[in-house]
């Protein structure tokens, strides 16, 4: 009732401290930017949307995500196979083997980068959103409910004082 009356402009609302309001605004801003950064980093690390969905499902089911061959590793495999077809002794075959080995190393480095970025960067962001932010939201709801209770009590007290003053004036 208090919430509805406040929204309709029929009841007074106790304002929170300006510093506290600033903290709430900063918390909201932090949450929004953290979500955006998390999503975009996931897109950067895994551009394939269906692979991201698959990884998300594995994570929610508490299963180990199967290791995926990176594009660099796949290209290295193709180059090595092509070199074997052309003959490792031919100039083209030798070049394909060298470039293929380099691509394999690049693919392995990419895999390690994705793994370390996920552990060192994404995990803390997720921990904030799934842990700290949920706590902040819960405490904010509790504070809002307490403020509504306080304002409702103030309104009842005001009505009681008005009725008491009216009864004292009217003999």
Automatic annotation (TrEMBL):
Keywords: Coiled coil, Cytoplasm. Residues 5-171 form the BAR domain. It comes from the Eukaryota. Coiled coil: none annotated. Pfam families: BAR. It is found in: Cytoplasm. Its main location: cytoplasm. GO terms for biological process: membrane organization. InterPro entries: AH/BAR_dom_sf, BAR_dom, Endophilin_SH3RF. GO terms for cellular component: cytoplasm; membrane. The keyword Cell inner membrane does not apply. Belongs to the endophilin family. PANTHER family: DREBRIN-LIKE PROTEIN-RELATED (PTHR14167:SF68), SH3 DOMAIN-CONTAINING (PTHR14167). This is SHLB2 protein. The lineage of its organism: Eukaryota, Metazoa, Chordata, Craniata, Vertebrata.
